[in-house]
Amino acid sequence: MSESQDIEYKSSWRDEYLKWICGFANAQGGKLYIGVDDNGKVCGVADSKRFMEDIPNKVRDALGLVVDVDLMKKNGLDVVRISVDENPYPVNYKGEYHYRSGSTKQLLQGAALTNFLLRKTGKNWDALPLENVSVDDLDKESFDIFYREAMRSGRMSADDLKFHTTMSPALNIIRFLKMPFAKLFLTP
């Protein structure tokens, strides 16, 4: 069997493989086999008893996860299987977020990291709070374009424009309420 979205082979253990476990936890879960080379050929591991004790503790201490670690015999050789469940919350390894994509481990950065964190926490960018916004920070022309297009598309009615004319006093409280981005446009 070859490596896939949920299977990774390593001929021996190195602590850096905690990144792969992190990646599985952040994706759909998976299994890491120690004692199998990249081509799926069993090479076995020496001192498998030590792995059975060390790996669960290393995973718990580094990632805050409890994983199943099983000893298997393949072709008379010891193979350690680490089974990782998908985690509902973001998992990081030393401040880095890894993700399993296909048969690769990806380091999430930039927009990919932002989108991942928002998705894992069940949030959207437009639900994030605005901090320290005042009326002076807002562009009236942008509001005019938004309302015109919303009216044209039928997503807003004339009654909705009442907010538009009384917007200025209401926006002063945004700074204190930490109003979400989207609510800025939807509050009557």
UniProtKB/TrEMBL annotation:
One of its GO terms (molecular function) is DNA binding. InterPro entries: Schlafen_AlbA_2_dom, Schlafen_AlbA_2_dom_sf. Residues 3-107 form the Schlafen AlbA-2 domain. Keywords: DNA-binding. It holds the Pfam family SLFN_AlbA_2. This is Putative DNA-binding domain-containing protein. It comes from Fibrobacter intestinalis.
